[in-house]
Design a protein that fits this description.
Layout (H helix, E strand, L loop, with lengths): L1 H10 L5 E6 L14 E6 L2 E4 L4 E4 L2 H6 L3 H8 L5 E3 L4 E3 L5 E6 L2 E3 L1 H5 L6 E7 L9 E12 L1 E12 L3 E13 L2 E26 L5 E27 L3 E25 L2 E29 L3 E24 L4 E26 L2 E18 L3 E19 L2 E16 L5 E16 L2 E13 L3 H4 L3 E3 L4 E4 L7 E14 L2 E13 L2 E8 L3 E8 L2 E16 L3 E15 L4 E17 L2 E9 L3 E3 L2 E3 L4 E11 L2 E8 L6 E7 L4 E9 L5 E12 L2 E3 L20
Parallel strand pairs: 7-10, 25-29
Antiparallel strand pairs: 1-2, 3-4, 4-9, 5-6, 7-8, 9-10, 10-41, 11-12, 11-40, 12-13, 13-14, 13-39, 14-15, 15-16, 16-17, 17-18, 18-19, 19-20, 20-21, 21-22, 22-23, 23-26, 24-25, 26-27, 27-30, 28-29, 30-31, 31-32, 32-33, 33-36, 34-35, 35-38, 36-37, 37-40, 38-39
């Protein structure tokens, strides 16, 4: 729950006609090998492929956008939720979203640094192939690259009435076939009006029942993070080399909850509670990439990524009676170090309208975590081999793929374990009359246990609860079937989708009784988990080259079968978005409610209605925007709950500063030199999982 809440806190991270020059389309990501030539763009031109959409922004959309995130918001793509004020790009239902620039691994800060005039198109992979592994969506920005010269940019966003800021500077310079780039961003949050309310019920093995309420008092949240990226790339007509160094540093001195705990029905039986967490960590990574184009439509790609992940986390939980006597004292601290190497190779051959690609990816990691009471050393390795064939027969596009995964996990003091899984994939797309199509996708994915859940460490949560890892967790399979219908007519676009997810033996949470008065929070391979999803998305615009509107409704029905429990949960989600522009002025409004997710016995998400309004003015390379978050509510609220028969809770987290927060945004970008179409890097590997187990309520 704390991770979900902390992630939310981080966020507070066919009238005009133009012609887009698209040359050397193979290097720009058109891997079907077809030269797109001169593309007439009316509204948001979208070319469908079986695995992705080629989206061409209009001149109006480029003109009113300040950066790559703004432009993405203007495109209003299905499945993707964009907040141009907070500079966030996410999937409302969770899942992995990959960002790329000419195929190269990118962060949202890199997208903010892009100038709309340099963006030729965005490749929207809403059906990523096998080599993307578990990615739900991939957004690849295809941009022009200066042959000489370069650009410098600055993007500043700060709140007027709260300690909230996100600021960045970037630059790049080109000389013939070489490019050097550097970017640096720093963000901070410092809130003093954060709290939670919680109601929890415990049923112990000795027959006792405890029903408590936590009434929160204003606490302190302080966090900051920094990102540094430097890169060098060299390319000619046949080969490309790219070296990128990234450094991420984050610090959370305070995540402090205070409140009063009392027994329901006996309010005089109360204690004062504090639950304070802090942490810091840094993650340097080196990414080396090489691509070689050969004769007869063949391409070879190699990628090597090394990462070091260091984390230090601490937690203090105390309960004192009203006279100040200490009743419960829980102290946890962990210092974690993780070393990992990811290597991958890809071979692709084009055969007219068909293509075949195969790849081998290996990930090796070693983790050493020092907890208060013990040290945990873990070794993990995953090897993934796959092959995929894409073909076309008249109006039918099809993809046949198969992958095989070997997973290894070993922990100090225990025997290592190997698991093998088989991952087939089938995609069929049929073009219907007009600009409509229907697509069927069915695939089997492998899901490995998280390192933090595999640890054999115990950590106290509070007076009665203990969190315990499970080294016996096994990988499991995800069976997913998806049916999508799309229709585009003039300025109207519609998308209707249904999904069935089935995860037998899914790793999910559970709670157990132990002794007379202890509850164990752990994970296990449960019976199964299912999700039935239906969604409808519609977009209209631009109308009179001024207004564009989109909206969606999503229904998720969850079925969670554990070894000792069974739960169902239904969630309705809506989203309404509007963008308007006139000459140098623009306005964006968004209204949505956050999607809730039910997994195991726990519901997370639970955001209430969110509203954002932004007004902006742009003059040449300079832009000034002003916006407000949640102007009609006096507080931000996020609900969660757990339905365990032994230790259930219903919780609400609040951040007062996030309501009616006024923000100012300034950006300036300066470009020099001329442009040409750059070649694309295909691979994108990174290791962001620290493998550290954390506790919290």
């Amino acid at each position: 729950m704390k991770r979900t809440f902390l992630a939310l806190i981080l966020l507070f991270g066919a009238l005009p006609i133009t012609v887009a020059q698209v040359r050397d389309s193979t290097f720009l990501g058109d891997r079907e090998g077809q030269d797109l030539g001169e593309v007439t763009v009316t509204a948001s031109a979208m070319t469908n492929r079986i695995d992705r959409k080629l989206v061409f922004p209009t001149e109006r959309q480029r003109r009113i956008s300040t950066n790559g995130v703004d432009l993405l918001q203007q495109l209003m793509l299905p499945k993707v939720q964009v907040n141009p004020l907070l500079h966030t790009v996410s999937l409302p239902g969770g899942g992995e979203l990959q960002l790329r620039i000419n195929g190269v691994k990118a962060e949202v800060q890199d997208i903010v640094a892009l100038q709309p005039a340099d963006i030729i198109r965005i490749e929207f992979h809403d059906n990523p192939g096998l080599r993307y592994n578990n990615a739900e969506v991939v957004l690849d920005y295809i941009v022009r690259r200066p042959e000489t010269g370069g650009n410098v940019g600055v993007n500043l966003t700060d709140a007027v009435d709260a300690a909230w800021g996100s600021n960045a500077i970037n630059g790049r310079i080109n000389h013939k076939q070489s490019e050097f780039s550097v970017s640096y961003d720093i963000s901070h949050r410092d809130f003093y009006r954060m709290w939670r309310d919680n109601e929890e019920v415990f049923h112990f093995a000795n027959g006792d029942t405890r029903h408590r309420k936590e009434v929160g008092e204003p606490g302190h949240l302080e966090l900051s993070w920094q990102n540094l990226k430097t890169a060098y790339s060299y390319q000619n007509d046949q080969q490309m080399f790219n070296a990128t160094f990234r450094y991420h540093y984050e610090k959370t001195p305070h995540m402090d909850y205070h409140g009063l705990l009392y027994e329901v029905g006996d309010e005089k039986n109360a204690v004062n509670m504090i639950d304070n967490s802090s942490g810091k960590g840094y993650r340097p990574a080196l990414d080396l990439y090489y691509q070689q184009k050969m004769e007869n439509g063949q391409t070879l790609v190699f990628n090597l990524v090394g990462t070091y992940n260091s984390t230090d986390n601490a937690r203090l939980y105390q309960e004192r009676d009203l006279d100040g006597a200490l009743l419960t004292d829980v102290k946890d601290a962990v210092a974690g170090k993780k070393y990992s190497v990811i290597g991958e190779g890809i071979y692709e051959k084009k055969m007219g309208a068909n293509s075949i690609n195969a790849g081998l990816k290996h990930t090796q990691s070693h983790t050493n975590n020092k907890y208060e009471q013990a040290t945990s050393e873990m070794n993990q390795a995953d090897t993934y081999l796959y092959g995929e064939f894409k073909g076309k027969v008249q109006k039918l596009d099809y993809t046949l793929g198969v992958g095989a995964t070997r997973s290894y996990f070993g922990q100090q003091g225990t025997a290592g374990r190997e698991d093998y899984t088989f991952n087939p994939r089938l995609v069929l797309r049929y073009a219907l009359p007009g600009e409509s199509s229907i697509r069927l996708k069915s695939e089997v994915r492998n899901v490995s246990p998280a390192l933090s859940n595999l640890s054999n460490i115990e950590q106290e949560i509070d007076s009665w609860q203990i969190q315990r890892g499970n080294p016996n967790l096994k990988p499991y399979l995800r069976y997913m079937t998806e049916l999508t219908y799309e229709l585009k007519k003039g300025i109207f676009y519609g998308n209707l989708q249904g999904i069935h997810d089935y995860l037998p033996h899914a790793i999910m949470d559970e709670k157990r009784q132990e002794g007379n008065n202890k509850i164990i929070q752990t994970w296990d391979n449960q019976t199964d988990w299912q999700r039935l999803n239906s969604s409808i998305y519609m977009r209209v615009g631009p109308i009179k080259d001024i207004l564009q509107v989109s909206g969606s409704v999503v229904v998720n029905h969850f079925i969670s079968h554990g070894n000792t429990y069974s739960h169902t949960y239904t969630d309705w989600v809506y989203n309404l978005e509007m963008s308007a522009s006139y000459k140098k002025f623009m306005a964006v409004a968004q209204l949505y409610n956050g999607r809730s997710w039910f997994y195991g016995e726990t519901m997370t998400g639970g955001e209430k209605n969110m509203f954002m309004l932004m007004l902006g003015y742009k003059h040449k390379e300079m832009a000034l925007n002003a916006g407000i978050m949640n102007p009609f509510t006096d507080n931000y609220k996020q609900d969660s709950e757990n339905r365990s028969q032994y230790a259930s809770y219903k919780k609400s987290n609040y951040i007062n500063e996030s309501s009616r927060m006024v923000m100012l945004q300034f950006s300036y970008n300066f470009t020099f030199g001329r442009t040409f179409n750059s070649r694309q890097k295909w691979l994108n590997n990174a290791d962001d999982d620290a493998g550290v187990m954390k506790t919290g309520k």
